[in-house]
Design goal:
By secondary structure, the protein is mostly beta strands. It has no helices and 5 strands. It has one domain.
């Protein structure tokens, strides 16, 4: 089963999502929309980071994330 890892850094205001293994990161590419794509050696996107991400909610409230899968 595939795993998705989600990290929310409230201090740095970033949201990082990995669909692959973080140690496989080889290069990063900034999209210009405050999003950084992390890629492996083959150029496949294995994660992304959203800069300046913040929620308007209390810092003690949990960030809820929902996923939907589909067959490609």
């Amino acid at each position: 089963m595939a795993q998705v890892k989600v990290f929310h850094d409230q201090t740095g205001n970033t949201l990082t999502v990995w669909f692959g293994e973080p140690q496989d990161e080889y290069i990063c590419e900034e999209t210009g929309d405050e999003v950084i794509l992390m890629k492996d050696r083959g150029g496949k996107v294995i994660g992304f980071e959203k800069l300046n991400f913040s929620t308007a909610k209390s810092e003690h409230e949990q960030l809820r994330v929902a996923f939907e899968t589909m067959i490609a």
